[in-house]
From TrEMBL:
It comes from Citroniella saccharovorans. Belongs to the EamA transporter family. GO terms for cellular component: membrane. The chain crosses the membrane at residues 7-24, 36-52, 73-91. This is EamA family transporter.
Length: 118
């Protein structure tokens, strides 16, 4: 049963990201930073709702946050925001197919850049 749920979740996720990639160029002549801001605002609201729901149900404890490095979390947030901005910029300037391919092959280039720079 969990396997079927996982497959359905992957399909819905792929459909959602495909629709997002379609609607970015269709959103008109808005600045890329504004498109990125509103996408992140929606993600923030959804994540806040889930976290608040889990917090109220008692699923969190102080031990969950004991080994968390907030500097790394802030760095991840900043780099993720830059990545989203770059993806939206590519979607505005390139064909949807080219921008999607660039977005999907990025993880394969990360190890190359990681070991290329001292």
């Amino acid at each position: 049963m969990n396997r079927k749920k996982g497959i359905i979740a992957i399909i819905i996720s792929a459909l959602g990201f495909s629709l997002m990639n379609l609607f970015i160029p269709l959103s008109g002549n808005l600045p890329t930073i504004q498109k990125s801001f509103f996408r992140n605002l929606i993600a923030f609201l959804v994540a806040s709702f889930v976290l608040l729901k889990d917090y109220k149900s008692g699923n969190f404890s102080k031990a969950d946050f004991k080994n968390v490095s907030f500097k790394i979390l802030i760095l991840r947030s900043i780099l993720g925001t830059i990545g989203i901005y770059a993806n939206y910029y590519a979607l505005d300037k390139l064909l949807i197919s080219d921008a999607s391919v660039l977005n999907k092959i990025a993880p394969f280039f990360n190890p190359y850049f990681l070991f290329s720079f001292p």
